[in-house]
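**Protein of interest**
===
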Amino acid sequence: EDIVQWCKELGIYVLIDWHVLNPGDPNDGTYSGAESFWKEMATKYKDEKHVLYEIANEPNGVTWSTIKSYHNKIIAAIRAIDTETIIICGTPTWSQEVDK
């Protein structure tokens, strides 16, 4: 909360990041709290224009269709609360190679 407020005071963006590294599948049970986390963030920050969401940073070792199913679920949960905030979605190669 403090960092989000400090960024607002400084007039800069802040990226709220759900980091996925090991295991690289965002659907893994390790990340079972993702949907409730993003609902909480969307409720808390939906009116903050300097906030961005990154819903899975650095997924790896799984296919795009696997990651996309996670993204679709999380995006729907966020959009039910917050229709405006930019959502960044990670790719299967540690959020690189966005053209594939």
Notes: The two ends are 35 Å apart (CA to CA). The beta strands are 14-19, 51-57, 87-88. Helices lie at 2-10, 34-45, 64-79.
